[in-house]
């Protein structure tokens, strides 16, 4: 394991202090977290990371804003699942926030352990998804006040089906669940079925927040979403042979920006910056890998080998390109609910695991990747069950693949030394393979 930095030791102390006061001062803990995130947001705005591309700086700002806006005014927030479309909430001035966003930033503050313990003490199984355990701990401890609405969908996480029901009971908050069939948008009946549920969700949000949904504003947000995804589609081949200048934290922030804030002017601007930045990016002759699922950005020895490195980089992730198909959308912004339903049905995380495998293979081909990593996040049964299928499919198309078991949220649940050894050996194998070609 890499030697911990002074900053890491300071954050460990901060996390320990948070854990000590979860039960006796939950409001103080919430304020401490809010202050920390707002300070980081100001830092990103005033002193942005200059080593990364401008689009990565955009993503950092958007991801921090999504969390700070929610914590600063939780009464105007909706707790939702990461794959559920957010345009209707954004159009109403409601801040969407997810387990991945809240828990990811709690982890960045080295404060996740106390909330994991809080959730497990309330009966949440140890084998449960760590992102959801942190969210449950935030709720059951009283650190997070009750929002006015909970909204989730069946894509792709089994924890969504359980966490939101439990949170609705804990908070006494209404919960709307969107059931997404194992189908695609080629099925008109499936589109209609999901679109009608999204309309019902919009009505529930109007009741919860006392605000009418402006249909014109919704169409504008959906148009932004479609142009953002078109821009991402155009940017994908520009990654081939180019230096990403990124790290695992950037990849997490990009995923949050293109889900929670998809449809905003800021995210559209970020996508357009990505096209420009990658078109002008420096050449790269190191090892490039495609990454499947959540990256463990907080593990220094895992993150460092691909952190703004000339030797190895993550060239694309399925969490960024999950909604980006090869074709133009069937429904335009004049049919906003159908357009959102289409995107949800065609997301590569919906349906059989072969769709995720196909997307990873497509990403690897289009970017000229040397190999792939499928990260099996603790508690994610879908990824655990599909990992070997994805590995076989990738390797059958010539992309060596490492299935790496770990935790994308809870540092106390990672065998970092073993993970680091395996990851480093995999990168070295890809280097040797590249040199021999």
UniProtKB/TrEMBL annotation:
It holds the Pfam family HGD-D. GO terms for molecular function: hydro-lyase activity. InterPro entries: FldB/FldC_alpha/beta. Signal peptide: none annotated. It comes from the Bacteria. Belongs to the FldB/FldC dehydratase alpha/beta subunit family. This is 2-hydroxyacyl-CoA dehydratase. It comes from Olsenella porci. The lineage of its organism: Bacteria, Bacillati, Actinomycetota, Coriobacteriia, Coriobacteriales.
């Amino acid at each position: 394991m890499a030697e911990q930095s002074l900053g890491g030791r300071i954050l460990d102390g901060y996390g320990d202090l948070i854990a000590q006061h979860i039960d006796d001062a939950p409001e103080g803990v919430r304020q401490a977290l809010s202050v920390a995130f707002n300070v980081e947001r100001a830092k990103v705005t005033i002193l942005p990371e200059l080593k990364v591309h401008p689009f990565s700086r955009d993503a950092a700002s958007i991801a921090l804003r999504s969390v700070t806006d929610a914590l600063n005014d939780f009464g105007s927030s909706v707790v939702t699942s990461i794959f559920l479309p957010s345009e209707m909430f954004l159009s109403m001035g409601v801040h969407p926030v997810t387990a991945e966003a809240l828990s990811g930033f709690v982890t960045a503050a080295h404060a996740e352990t106390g909330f994991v313990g809080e959730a497990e003490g309330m009966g949440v199984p140890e084998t449960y998804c760590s992102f959801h355990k942190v969210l449950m701990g935030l709720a059951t401890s009283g650190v997070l006040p009750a929002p006015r609405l909970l909204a989730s969908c069946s894509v792709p996480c089994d924890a969504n089906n359980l966490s939101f029901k439990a949170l609705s009971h804990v908070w006494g908050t209404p919960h709307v669940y969107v059931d997404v069939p194992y189908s695609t948008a080629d099925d008109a009946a499936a589109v209609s079925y999901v679109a009608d549920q999204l309309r019902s969700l919009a009505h529930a949000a109007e009741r919860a927040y006392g605000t009418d949904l402006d249909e014109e504003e919704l169409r504008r947000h959906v148009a932004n979403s479609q142009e953002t995804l078109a821009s991402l589609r155009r940017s994908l081949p520009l990654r081939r042979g180019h230096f990403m200048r990124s790290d695992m934290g950037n990849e997490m922030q990009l995923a949050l920006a293109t889900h929670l804030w998809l449809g905003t002017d800021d995210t559209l601007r970020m996508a357009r910056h990505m096209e420009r930045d990658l078109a002008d990016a420096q050449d790269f002759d190191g090892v490039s890998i495609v990454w499947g699922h959540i990256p463990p950005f907080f593990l220094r020895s895992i993150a460092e080998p691909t952190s703004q490195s000339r030797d190895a980089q993550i060239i694309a992730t399925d969490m960024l390109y999950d909604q980006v198909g090869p074709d133009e959308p069937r429904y335009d912004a004049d049919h906003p609910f159908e357009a959102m339903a289409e995107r949800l049905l065609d997301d590569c995380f919906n349906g059989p695991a072969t769709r995720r495998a196909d997307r990873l293979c497509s990403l690897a081909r289009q970017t000229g990747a040397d190999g792939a990593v499928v990260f099996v996040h603790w508690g994610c049964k879908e990824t655990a069950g599909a990992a070997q299928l994805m590995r076989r499919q990738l390797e059958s198309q010539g992309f060596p693949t490492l299935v790496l078991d770990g935790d994308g949220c809870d540092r106390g649940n990672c065998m970092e030394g073993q993970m680091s050894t395996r990851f480093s050996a995999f990168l070295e194998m890809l280097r040797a393979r590249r040199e021999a070609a």
